[in-house]
Amino acid sequence: MSNHIPQRIVFLRKQEVDIESFELPTLQSDEVKIRCQYSLMSTGTENIVFNCLYDKGTHWDNWVKFPFYPGYAAAGIIEEAGSDVTHLKVGDRVGYRAGHSSHAVVKETACYPIPEEIPSEQAVWFALAKISFQGAMAAKYNLGDRVLIIGAGPIGQMSLRWARASGAKKVFVVDPVSERAHIAQAGGASVYFPTPANEAKAGILEANDNTLPNVVIDSTGHPAVFSVALDLAARSGRVILMGDTGQPASQTLTSDVIMKGLSITGAWDGHKFPDWDEAAITSLFFTMVKDGRFNLDGLNTHEFTPDQCVEAYTTANRDRAQTMGILFNWNLKP
Fold first, then answer.
1. What is the DSSP letter of 316?
2. Is the pTM of this model over 0.90?
3. Which domains does the chain show, CATH number per domain?
4. Tell me: the pLDDT tens digits for 208-241?
5. Rounded to a whole number, what is the distance in angstroms from the first to the last CA of the chain?
6. Distance (Å, whole) CA 162 – CA 276
7. Contact assessment for residue 48 and residue 246, using Cβ atoms and an 8 Å cutoff
8. Do the Cβ atoms of 64 and 49 come closer than 8 Å?
9. For residue 54, how far is the Cα from the chain centroid?
């Protein structure tokens, strides 16, 4: 049992981050206490919150209250188990949803055993994979689909891998950051276009037999990309919004919706599917990582100790194009 004082990362106010001590809740009979090994920054969500990049009256505005405790993807080791915990034991490694903190108390049913073959710093991607799985479900992939992923950040990379796993014939990725190409290609991208999305149409047509993709995934959360995504979809195509913009009033519908008969579907972490809860999705993800169908090599680009949280969020903002997976390593935290 650890006697260490729990610590967590906190946004005190706009663009101000620190680390603080806190008291864990009392362990209930159906809960486990977990010592964190790694937590993964969700650069899209956390940068929107950190910089308050959202309009008044949006769900972001209603959700974000300071102090705000960021993070929702962690991997760690169980240190204590309640009396009614039956499927997990002390010493097990699990993925779980919690903020960036050294310790957490979590219900047994919200913990996902990590296979021995998968290191914790890779397993922590389960949460972003689960979120992107929502986009794959919304896309209703068919074998042989031709898919365009706009944005090659963390959500885009996970979306690419689900499209490949679902039997897409070709998956194109558009992102102006050329340094992300090798990670996308390792994940199965057919062609990577290192250009803004509004400049990629000619290249996509050339690479796709002079046709547009029938599924377009917008993973960026940038309001200006929405109209471009509509332009890049084929007739009767499906456009999936994975990136949750903080400025929805700036997203613009175009005549493509009517003229091409497009369907537009939003995908969000909280959406529910009867046969696919988080445990089932995470189990599938771990299985596919273990057998090589879901390549995570190279996704983690930066690692910080929790005490380096100011530097971590400065890097995430200043060098966003050069980052992918930003890890907090809690293993060395006293």
1. H
2. yes
3. 7-125+299-329 (3.90.180.10), 130-266 (3.40.50.720)
4. 999 999 999 999 999 999 999 999 999 999 999 9
5. 14
6. 14
7. yes
8. yes
9. 19
Residue 273: how many other CB atoms lie within 10 Å: 12
Please compute, for residue 11, the number of CA atoms within 13 A of its CA located in the half-sphere on the CB side.
Answer: 22
pLDDT tens-digit profile of 232-289?
Answer: 999 999 999 998 899 999 999 999 999 999 999 999 998 989 999 999 999 999 999 9
Give the DSSP letter string of 254-270. -THHHHTT-EEEE--TT
Q: Are 19 and 310 in contact (CB under 8 A)?
A: no
Q: Which of 302, 298, 307, 300 is nearest to 319 (CA)?
A: 302
Supply the DSSP string of 29-52, one letter for each residue.
TTEEEEEEEEEE--HHHHHHHHHT
Closest C-alpha among 283, 273, 238, 244 to residue 140? 238
